Amino acid sequence: MATQHSRSAARLMMAPAVILLLGWMLIPLTMTLWFSFRKFLPLRGGDLGWVGFDNYTRFVSSSSFWPSVQATLLIVGGVLVITVVLGVLLALLLDQPMWGQGVVRILVIAPFFVMPTVSALVWKNMFMDPVNGLLAHLWKAFGAAPIEWLSQASLTSIVIIVSWQWLPFATLILLTAIQSLDSEQLEAAEMDGAPVLKRFWFIILPHLSRAITVVILIQTIFLLSIFAEIFVTTQGSFGTKTLTYLIFQRVLESQNVGLGSAGGVYAIILANIVALFLMRIVGRNLDA
Amino acid sequence: MGRIVLEQVAKRFGDVEVIPPLDLTIEDGEFTVFVGPSGCGKSTLLRLIAGLEDVTAGSIQIDGAEATGVPPAKRGLAMVFQSYALYPHMTVRKNIAFPLRMAKLDRQEQDRRVEQAAAVLNLTDYLDRRPGQLSGGQRQRVAIGRAIVREPAAFLFDEPLSNLDAALRVGMRLEISELHKRLETTMIYVTHDQVEAMTMADKIVVLRAGHIEQVGSPLELYREPRNLFVAGFIGSPKMNFIEGTEAAKHKAHTIGIRPEHIAVSESKGSWSGVVGVSEHLGSDTFFHIHDTGLAETITVRADGEVGFRHGDKIHMSPRTDVIHKFNESGLRIP
Amino acid sequence: MARAVTQQRKAVNTLVAWAIGVLIFFPILWTILTSFKTEAQAIADPPLFLFFDWTLENYSVVQERSDYMRFLWNSVIIAGCSTLLGIVIAVPAAWSMAFVPSKRTKDILLWMLSTKMLPAVGVLYPIYLLFIQFKLLDTRIGLVLVLMLINLPIIVWMLYTYFKEIPGEILEAARMDGATLRDEILYVLTPMALPGIASTVLLNVILAWNEAFWTLNLTAAKAGPLTAFIASYSSPEGLFYAKLSAASTMAIAPILILGWFSQKQLVRGLTFGAVK
Hints:
B: 2 domains; 6-stranded mixed beta sheet; 26% helix; C: mainly alpha
């Protein structure tokens, strides 16, 4: 539905965005791939030549690899379960008639706008500090010994912080999805005599399934690469070294670029697997 | 000046041939209507003339100048869209002035022409409103105003009345016709409504599946439809078609007789049948007659006062001088 | 159809929802409260909620000691410029995709999205190297470029969905009225899509403001934005809760306010139109 003239104009106008993103993707990716096959220690001799798949095998066989995979999965999985379950409940609650709905919504959404470094620091110091943290006071108030959150329950702490940040996102999207549910459908089910729980299980949940999938996929992509929350709390100690953080340490802290790059390639592959599923959903939506 | 000539113009979307090569000349000052059922390619043809689509083959000349590859802005044509396509963020004044602003006319000239157009179209009181605050008919007039200020070589109308209600449609029809009489500019008007075509056109182009079925004045098309399709499309209610022995009597495969060319009577007539539904319009009555042995239904247009009721026996006499005859391939037999 | 709900049930809903809302908001509230306490009051046992000596001292201390304004200015420049640059590049691209779609449009859109999913850490060193090479390390221009690039897919995507809602006939009308492509985009498309463009700007300012991987890894003292400013508080030095709170409040307040305005657009932007 256009002329040759407008089609060539369209190509021209799309060019800057496409070329920039192509460069942004291909140049660093090629460099990462290149480094991953070389022994490259910038501070200890520089580029020491081709090593084949050595970095790949070394990265996987290093003692920190499997724990980092485990930490990554625990954090991503934990946050997903918490945010999706609480998100559904919260969305259902916020969809109910009440006074001051707008204000409550604003309160619930707020954490999403807090920059990761701030939320990590506030939680670390003002809530999870074993002496002065509010949680310590709370524990003492009930006569329990305060927990040293970031060392004794380090993974749990990170999961709590990150869940707090992402719960608003899940809630907001699920709420939007619930509001798009045709209320006549629910009324029809009510007329048919379906009790509340059944209505939730057979009508609301299936309606939400797509939104939940989208939440899971998008969060997974962001959660796989959480960084600041670990950077300012545990610095990767106490078993909180995720894959992202491990690669960061290899590259910038121990300056083993070859090894880190091989790790980076693993991370890229992992993210792409998740992305593939997301793209299929988004792509299907484009046709609709 | 606006003489538009299409030579072997064709349009394909991928493998689909929307318009097979066709020739058409639209004379300067002529009101030409493209009419046909939806999907017949009439809007596409208009967009080809406008330059909003490229022709796949052939050439378009406007006023003798080659316009085939010229972008729409440079063809000197103005278009009124089905959805009016007004700029919602601009006032009526700015909407009408937009083409002048694009042509970089000075402010005074812009204002003068806008005021003039507004006066012609009864929009003077609405110049500072936005399109959202106007009624459908007013919006339509703004769209026309935007077209006339440019003083184009030709106006293109793409089903401009289809979003209006019936009463407004009749009024706007008249207004556009009057505008044409006053401006004497070439107008090309696309519609699927044969009433609009018949009432407004100097020349009607009947299209089906991209083909031109017939070109002619409204009365030519009414009197001498070139084939069954045109015969059935032009005229309301639709022409009755009769095949078989009755047609054979006239040495034709099919004969057509318009509802208004059949007289009805209680007692005498060469055909007879039973009245089904009768539609009373006041001035006229349409009878849908069954069990005639000729066709499933015969429609007859009678005087408003003629009173037959459902189930009545009725006799009909066709006017033999206006029976249309068609051969096996549906073409008119002279 | 809203149905009549008993006042009782509505009251219960209200109570529960407010309780949960306040609980979720509490860490932010607590931070804001603490920022007005003295350091001693900040760690008082039992904790003080409202009855303390409100002071603004922390804010001035933070400003003096760590030059809050400079970080704030860096954040504003980086978030603002990267978004504006992104918009300038994305508007023509989104125009093309929305109004002159081809068979490849969908593939290009999805591909753009896929670049957004490239894990940053995977390309950390190459970018680091390129930054050293082009002397972009710890410069605002460098961060503007990187943040523009990581958000460009979202900007294109959001604008695309907004543009799709504008009827093509209006742009065709402009073309018939003699508008060039530039006129068409400047005088017709942009004003019509202004609400959508505004939401896109808003959301991307928020995302750029809060970005905390590249801003932490590619800046030091000179070009560091507020994310880096806050990260510098991660090693405690004596009594510092109140000051940390003041710094945090200052870092999140601008974006919290912006964010509340853009809740609706947030869904669209972050799900790439998959949930509306």
